[in-house]
Amino acid sequence: MNKDCLFCKIISGDIPGDITYEDELVVAFRDINPQADLHQLIVPREHISTTNDLTSSHQMLIGHMVLTAQKIARDNNVAEDGYRLIFNCNQHGGQTVYHIHLHILAGRQLTQLG
User: Fold this and answer.
1) What DSSP string runs through the chain?
2) Is this model's pTM higher than 0.90 or not?
3) Is residue 92 part of a domain?
């Protein structure tokens, strides 16, 4: 845990978050500035600043994050219509909180990328 990290504070309960799912590896909560009807963040309990800090030892964790997103999509009845998963990395990648997190967005037609 990083005592200065916003997401670490949500995970520890020091500040409130609208938590929708949690297990031994991750916590999911609603984004405070949603970009779609369903916009949640899946955050590992382990503080990892950016995706550049991942190592091969994190493979299971990243897979677990993706499978958690799949569960959230199914639980919210958006899996069949579709959803988007996004990791942002560093400033130019749009990362604003330096604790890796996977965005899941769904509930409307999302625009094509590229």
Assistant:
1) --TT-HHHHHHHTSS---EEEE-SSEEEEE-SS-SSSEEEEEEESS----GGG--GGGHHHHHHHHHHHHHHHHHTT-TTT-EEEEE--TGGGT--SSS--EEEEESSPPPPP-
2) yes
3) yes
